[in-house]
# Entry
Amino acid sequence: MAAFVVAVAVAQQRRDAFVLSRDHPAIRYSTGDLDNPIVRLNERLTKGEVRLTYDAAHGYLTSLLDALAIPVSSQMLVFSKTSFQADLVTMHNPRAIYFGDDVFVGWVRGADVLEIAAADRRQGSVFYTLQQKAPGAPGVPVTLERKTDCLACHLSWDTRGVPGLMTTSMYPLPDDPNAYANGFTTVQGSPLTQRWGGWWVTGDTGGAQHLGNIPVMPAEKNFAHPRNPKAPLQTVEGFFDLKGYPAATSDVVALLVLAHETTVTNLIGRLGWEARVAEAEPSADASARVKDAAGELAESMLFLDEELLARPVQGSSGFAEAFAASGPRDAKGRSLRDLDLHTRLFKYPCSFLIYGAAFNALPPAARQAVYGRLWEVLSGRDTRKITQQLSAADRQAILQILRDTKPDLPESFK
# Structure
């Protein structure tokens, strides 16, 4: 299955991973109940409440994005061979990825299927495909099919031992035919110098020394690509035939948000599984694992592991504006989706995924452990150096926004 997003394995950022079977009795990933946007979409499709429409240029892509409320402006273009449909992917036929808060869609021009990943309320990431062929018999609904073979790539240490999301950055391969691909996953703490190898990047990256916009396969070295990959590239128009692509951008702000979202989504998945095992089989070790997973999730939600921006960045697709407009706001009009883009990604560094279905569905004890760690940092009780990148003004603003917009906060937050 497609490597949906970029996760870099920076050793000091890794603490631990879920180590038991995905079909442990407390988990039952293969057979347990599911609750995610694709399950609900399939139910609506089966009942005839919604219908996906096919067109020759995109197949079901645009109709599926509309049904899932995923903006076209989130489009990112990856041309490294990191998909199970890699034989169709080149620098001039990149795989397009689109995402919302809990669903990720991959489209390859000329491919037989769409690739979909959904963040489930219980099971971490669950993977699906949708056949890219015209409808068959009238009255037979189009539905999305669950896939588990994707776990060959999407269940690893990089995803914290649970089915998860990855974004891979690739170094260019040398001409040596015996050379092995040299890639790694990127997370929100990954330096920009390690990101986006094998990706088109549009928008102003502030001159960052990233790896995007250059060929990674020897056979593609003669393909058209920017002479100066650091220079702002507002569109990929002119570099390859855009027929079928809904947009001509691979937005840098979307790429940055994606790294955060995949990082936190995987950590939520790991915490949920650790907590369910601890409930089923209580032990000191299980409790310690829950505490560790909750602490790491809370710190990542507060961006304590964030790679800061050396210079301002600016998107090229309208994604930044659409993203910021869609979140709840406090009495002063502030939102956790407000972007900074000058020295860091978000103006108020606390993850918008705190509102998400997967976070809200965490076992109560696990969710309270996350809140406990958040409170230690936001209240100023934790005075370690790692917490000091959040100023007193940052902490106060985050607390005020949460108090106005998150109804289930513990009493300690109020």
Q: What stands out?
A: The longest strand covers residues 113-120. The chain has two domains: 11-220, 252-413. DSSP finds nine helices and nine strands in the chain.
